[in-house]
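so my prof wants the structure for this chain in the tokens format not the other one, which i didnt know existed until like an hour ago. anyway here's the sequence
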Amino acid sequence: MQQTREQGEASATSLDGPQAGEMASPDVPIYDSAAQPHPFLEEWQELWRYRDLVFQWSGRNIKLRYKRSALGVLWTLLEPLMLMLILTVVFSTVFRPMEGFPVYLLAGLILFDFFNRSTLLIVEEIIASQSLAERVHVPRSAFAVAAVLTYLTHWVIAHVPLLAIMLFFGRPLSFALLTLPLGLLLAALFALGVGLIVATLGAFFHDIRLTYQVLLTGWFYATPVIYPLDVVPEGMQVYFRLNPMYVLLRLVRQPVYDGAMPPASLWLAGIAISVSTLVLGWWTFTRWRNAFDYRR
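here's what i got, hopefully its the right format
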């Protein structure tokens, strides 16, 4: 009996010893679900791994936009010009004469059109990606970034007719125009942040897109796009200046219309608005990203 007990203990030691040693060894990786990064960082890491998908999806959106279009990319040049012409005829008789009003108007229209279309596309793409995400693992933020890149491309193309209008009306082509790419970047970051917030709300409220479209209309008229700020009563101007789109609008309009560099205080305000909105939107989206899996 004593011999049998000793053999059993030796057998147990031979079985458990290596496993215990392996568990204690620091060279053996241990999976711990609690050690996963915060969703805020994890979503960014996944977005970076799927960066090729972002560019491919953006290219797909651009091709679909011009598919079966007789004018193709030319429509991106003509659309803002046609809208500018109509609004110039209407509003040039309402406001006191502004020198180079079409340049003032077109610079604002191009910016708000980018913000309008890109944020709406973010909402549509993220919600529409639900069926794809159920089959394969794809970070939904990739569709949001692709949407911004899609209309950022259109926005850059739309500046071609803007430069032509500037030359036609004799607006100065100064070195201040070199700051336009930074203004475009800040507007893109702001649009991405707003789009992520609205898309997250869309996971809980199915009619958020229609509601947001109505709000965009009000936002457009609350931003000095088609009118100068000085036509607003002086007591109300402070509220218009608090509009974040007004700050971004000045960053891209001042080099175009005035031929002057925006002041440093305006750049700091634009950076603060864009970065804080993006961080808030990214946090909101990653905090409730699993809600999209239960959306029906």
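also thought this was worth mentioning. Confidence is low (pLDDT under 50) at residues 1-6, 9-25.
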